[in-house]
Design a protein that fits this description.
- The protein is an alpha+beta fold.
- The chain has two domains: 188 residues, Sortase, Chain: A (Beta Barrel); 54 residues.
- Helix content is 28%, strand content 21%.
- The protein is built from four helices and eight strands.
- The chain has an eight-stranded mixed barrel.
- Strand 1 and strand 2 form a beta hairpin.
- The radius of gyration is 22 Å and the shape is elongated.
Length: 286
């Protein structure tokens, strides 16, 4: 029973700590104001928007900050991390390795949790065509407009492929909420002079673009971790309980309070680590 609230709220502690670190790193890389709220004019249009796509560059190292993702309608303001493995998505939305970075030609793709680890993509299903998505990177502030949503199987990585002359941002998460049965995919199109810097049209007869294979992921959002740590920490919890009980029985009555406090502390710590191991075994965008 305790595992359920741990999933819903306890895992958020890990995410908040990681986001604080990522924001600090992004602020250091991009300069003052990089992680501040997007400034808007009186008409509600953000200032400093990029009107052209940025040239292609290398991605940051896995685990490093990519940029700041902002979705005003659903209150998202999250630093995007490079990678979609369990370790990366514990810290925030993750950029699929092998896809372009946001603001560059092609289909930049990002995965995020929907139920656990502060659930940054919990309300992704509320986005409708016309809703705006912003990403601030080292190359500028880029605006996208939601074009469509769809539901696919977890293995359908074809939605990450880049189409010729298209400049899109694809967001993926588990669906329905509290389940990892399928994946919700939201596709947004770059709002700007998308022809500038976009990839040239494919020649007649050219093969269709291939979907990238995200590093460390067996499907959309990444695979869960090993179940071995669950067994290890379950054994640890059982051992702590048995040792505490034996110590309590063999201790003089006037000192049993100390054994109880010490034993309970060890047991609670082991249970916490058991829950964390179980969380990491779930699909990475659950």
């Amino acid at each position: 029973m305790a595992f359920v609230p741990f999933q819903l709220w306890g895992t958020a502690l890990f995410q908040h700590a990681a986001q604080a670190r990522l924001r600090h790193e992004l602020q250091h890389a991009l300069g003052p104001g990089a992680t501040a709220a997007i400034p808007t004019s009186g008409a509600g249009t953000p200032t400093g928007l990029a009107t052209h796509l940025a040239p292609e560059t290398g991605a940051p190292p896995v685990g490093g900050p990519v940029g700041l993702l902002t979705i005003p309608k659903i209150g998202v303001s999250q630093v995007v991390v490079e990678g979609v493995g369990q370790a990366q998505l514990r810290g925030g939305p993750g950029h699929y390795p092998g896809t372009p970075l946001p603001g560059q030609p092609g289909n930049a793709s990002i995965a995020g949790h929907r139920t656990t680890y502060a659930a940054p993509f919990a309300d992704l299903n509320l986005l409708v065509p016309g809703d705006l998505v912003y990403v601030r990177t080292a190359q500028g502030l880029f605006r996208y407009s939601v074009a469509r949503s769809l539901v696919v199987t977890p293995s359908d990585v074809a939605v990450l492929a880049s189409a010729p002359s298209a400049s899109t941002l694809t967001l993926t998460t588990c669906t329905p909420r509290f389940s990892a049965a399928q994946r919700l995919v939201v596709v947004a199109e770059f709002s700007g002079d998308s022809a500038t810097g976009a990839p040239p049209p494919a020649p007649p007869g050219a093969p269709a673009p291939r979907a990238p294979t995200p590093a460390g992921a067996s499907g959309l959002g990444g695979a869960g971790g090993s179940v071995l740590p669950i067994g290890v920490w379950a054994l640890g919890v059982l051992t702590a309980v048995v040792v505490t009980r034996l110590a309590w029985v063999r201790t003089r009555p006037r000192w049993r309070w100390a054994v109880t406090i010490l034993g309970a502390t060890v047991i609670v710590g082991a249970v916490f680590l058991l829950f964390d191991a179980a969380s990491q075994a779930l699909p990475a965008s659950f």
